[in-house]
């Protein structure tokens, strides 16, 4: 009798649906978070455990393999400019849809459940006192690389790995054993990644059950208008903006989504880009992007290319203004765009990044910070969408950079699904 094989994407989807059902049935039951939260936390910890070794090993291999500081500098500047242009489009679309549909107008704030934003306020204040964007630039250079690794400071890890990779390339033959070591680390960590991913459906089930049982499906109704608008704007951004960018470079955003279907489902379910970082790097390499471009562009994008997050922040800022009856002038909206462009880069990587960005930004245009408490209850649902968009944007960026450098293996890209099918048959 032939066994029916269910793909990872379907397994994750089944886990997601079952988790929603369990959470809805046991809404308000304290036993769900008590027993299932540890399962979800273990899965997330397993993913976070492998991110740093993969980033370091693949980036050192990529940079040492290229070994040209001029080429790397050119790629770096081109990548940052691309990120800035795309995230600016995301902010503008967010402001446009919020201005057009007015999701916050007529919201009865008495019926909305307030949340506790004190921890986000503290984080925001510490970011501001730390110097914001300028402080982030300073901390790109770590005083202690081991500490940077333990804290998951992605920009500091990237800086060290690039410098170390250039050093390995510079010493020539002596560097070959080092490259062999990191090649072995990378291969071993990708095996570990694939093994951990087998537990993804269980992790997704646990995390979604806890979310739904805590907040309940009914709690989404009062803010349904905002949630629908955010999701619609995300789809518009992916299909139109990312779709046009892909088309210009002879690529297809829909093909990219098909390639990343497993990872997008997982990122959506867990609200964490980290869960899929190793897998999307591996898949983009299989899709024809050279290792050095993949290992530089995608981790850097995790700090500088948060398309979904910036789009959401623009909508949320205007939603809160509309709730309070504040009519922002064109000048104030331009200020909002410019402020978001800076703050969204300046505090990348801190917990609750989108909330902290908003707290750091709303004051610039006179919007009450207390309004954030009203959307805290559905933030997890909105976070799921913005995480999936962040993953799509960063994956496309690696393909675009490879194509712009004339280094995309078009045969691998064109025959991706056929190659994957053949490899699964072996």
From TrEMBL:
Main location: membrane
GO cellular component: plasma membrane
Keywords: Cell membrane, Membrane, Symport, Transmembrane, Transmembrane helix, Transport
Alphabetized GO MF terms: symporter activity
GO biological process terms on file: dicarboxylic acid transport
Sequence intervals crossing the membrane: none
Bilayer topology annotation: Multi-pass membrane protein
Taxonomy, superkingdom: Bacteria
Alphabetized InterPro entries for the sequence: Na-dicarboxylate_symporter, Na-dicarboxylate_symporter_CS, Na:dicarbo_symporter_sf
Annotated compartments: Cell membrane
Protein name: Glutamate:protein symporter
Originating organism: Rummeliibacillus stabekisii
